[in-house]
Design brief:
The complex is a heterodimer. Helices cover 33% and strands 33% of the residues of chain A. Chain A has two helices and three strands. The chains are: A alpha+beta, B alpha/beta.
């Protein structure tokens, strides 16, 4: 069975995000109102073979800790989707 | 007595030759260039992780280099107490490899900064800074887009309490304070050492100011300090 795992990596709320702040200023400069905050992160899509969703999730979870995100400054979340 | 020095070369390293040259010119000793694919390396007394853009800084600076085969050897030797110094991208790799705490984030104003800055020596008792005095002000270039040092509040306290902050950004007269760090680093941190005292990481480039002909010699004492540490240890 093939799965697509979407790994969403974002800076921890406590970490200043200068890119997000720059985008927020630009959006405001465009005349948009009411923006509370803008944060920039990464989406990493991995397509892989696996026996079931749980096994795939656990595997990519480990990869995320080891490489895809830096727990010092980032958090991540995973979405696992079977590919028909 | 001779000591064995390695400068590790990752794809995208660009300060490797500068490190070889300044080490050799200042100490008169040779340094080997070691390709990152090596999975077994000699017991080098000193390992230099040079600056550059290993793996194009993909994912995060230093994140992919950390998994190069040679890094297992660097970690092995670091745990044995051998000296390891990471400069700029080398510092970023050391944090990704968990040999040093914290992380280097995008500079506060998003700008790549390449210019001379001033550094204050905060700890002159390390294996890498014995030739300086505490409070010395050095003029040394930085050249990075991700030098904004960040660590948890617990981690910061640990660095402060154990005197592990070796260099701080400062003004020409040695003042340290908020907004003086050009990149937004926490507590103006420019360089730190591990608790064991054998792994140093710093963003500024001492290898670029180790010879008069190249515009300065304020970085030279990093190399002479290391040499005198190795001589005292008597490793051959």
């Amino acid at each position: 069975m093939k799965y697509k795992v979407i790994v969403r990596v974002v800076l921890k709320p406590s970490v200043l995000d200068p890119q997000g702040a720059a985008i927020e200023r630009a959006l405001t400069a465009m005349g948009n109102k009411g923006i509370d905050s803008v944060r920039v992160g990464k989406i990493i899509e991995i397509v892989l073979e696996g026996p079931d969703e749980k096994t795939v999730f656990d595997k990519v979870n480990i990869w995320s800790d080891e490489l895809l995100a830096n727990p010092n400054m980032e958090t991540y979340s995973l979405i696992v989707e079977p590919i028909a | 007595m001779t000591f064995k020095t390695a400068v590790i070369v990752f794809p995208g390293s660009n300060c490797d030759q500068d490190c070889v040259r300044s080490w050799q010119t200042v100490t008169g000793l040779k340094a080997d260039l070691v390709w990152h694919k090596e999975s077994k390396i000699d017991n080098y007394d000193l390992i230099i992780l040079p600056g550059g853009f290993s793996y194009g800084d993909y994912l995060r600076t230093g994140a992919i280099a950390r998994f190069s085969p040679v890094m297992a050897e660097v970690i092995r030797l670091a745990y044995k107490g051998h000296l390891v110094i990471g400069i700029c991208n080398g510092f970023q790799i050391l944090t990704e490899a968990h040999l040093l705490p914290g992380a280097l984030l995008r500079n506060r104003y998003l700008k790549y900064i390449c210019k001379d800055i001033y550094l204050r020596v905060e700890n002159a008792k390390t294996a890498f800074t014995g030739g300086y005095h505490r409070g010395d002000v050095l003029r040394i270039p930085i050249s990075h887009g991700e030098g904004n040092y960040n660590v948890s509040s617990h981690g910061l306290k640990e660095l402060q309490d154990h005197d592990l902050i070796v260099f701080r950004y400062c003004t020409p007269d040695g003042t340290v304070g908020a907004d003086i760090a050009p990149n937004g680093s926490m507590d103006s941190i420019a360089g730190i050492i591990n608790k064991a005292g054998n792994v140093l990481g710093l963003m500024p480039h001492p290898e670029r100011v180790s010879e008069d002909e190249l515009g300065g010699t304020d970085g030279r004492s990093v190399w002479t300090s290391i040499l005198s540490t190795l001589q005292k240890r008597g490793v051959a």
